[in-house]
Amino acid sequence: MSKSRFNLEEIIDLKKWEKLQDSLSLVTKMAILTVDYKGVPVTKHSFCQPFCQGVRQDSNLSPYCQKCDARAGIEAVRQNKPYIYLCHFNIIDIAIPIIIDDQYLGAIMAGQLKLREPDVSQLEQIVSRPPNVESNMKFQALKEDYEALPVLSYDEVTKCVDLLLQLSTYIVEEAIQKRTTVDLYKRVLTTDIDISASAELFEETDLTYRKIQSLQQELSGALIETKLKNGAQKFVSSNAVLQPAFDYIYAHKNENFSLKEMAKLCHISPSYFSRIFTKETGENFSLFIARLKIEWAKQLLETTDAPINQVSDDLGFCDTGYFIKTFKRFENLTPAVYRNMYMN
């Protein structure tokens, strides 16, 4: 999973999020903390239990708590789902990853409770701590707080975890969509684009999630079209069956294209599409798309001062490194060198 290009602190209002986090903590009986993709807390700890406060303030025991947090976050990302585990004191804790479009944004660390069922063999103790006199003395001093830890059944824990996962994902996803749409709209307002067709979408009061996504795609495509004022002429196929695919490709320069999707658009099988596409263009589908995108990239490098990573994003490359590698494959030099040569 690639590192997030989003920042939780920039996406959501953390003060409002902390109030919600406090309420969720009361409802679920769990202590809750939100961290970013680096594991750094971005909120205060909502209702940290006295026992855990005492343990985390102990210089000998707190490193084990930190190891639990770090390893649990990694395990949650690896499994791509919430990870329920036992801490070094056999207390139930949970790492709930916030993952949007395969991007890991951070995690909700929750728990500090005990199971009503005595059998916890199905759970892993993620960090073991060798017993010693000092640890035993600390535990005895905090035993009353330990006994006062909230108690839930395993079923109640899983339901609370699902609530936290669904709610956090929804809120962050909506915040990203809103932010992206506003940013695109601002860019359109400062660009010479006719957005009358898209404006109707803004006037509707019942915009759905799919409409917002569609609007984003339209605005992104419009921005690319404006930048490519001297763009290559659209490929006109001698085979009418393929033309819907070419029309779509040239109208959605900011997207990734799959052979299977284009074949479906043309109402033919992928194998037949591949065969007639190669016959029509003289190249297989993936090579044709890559070469075409590099041609568009060259125009953007020549006509705009957009950073290399922005050009990569505008043309739908999965990451900047892959874009540079592809560009060099066709042009035998990097995008930065190409731009410098063109400008000089």
UniProtKB/TrEMBL annotation:
Keywords: DNA-binding, Transcription, Transcription regulation
Domain HTH araC/xylS-type intervals: 243-341
Matching SUPFAM superfamilies: Homeodomain-like
InterPro entries linked: Homeodomain-like_sf, HTH_AraC, HTH_AraC-typ_CS, PocR_dom
One Pfam family named in its UniProt record: PocR
Name of the protein: HTH-type transcriptional activator RhaR
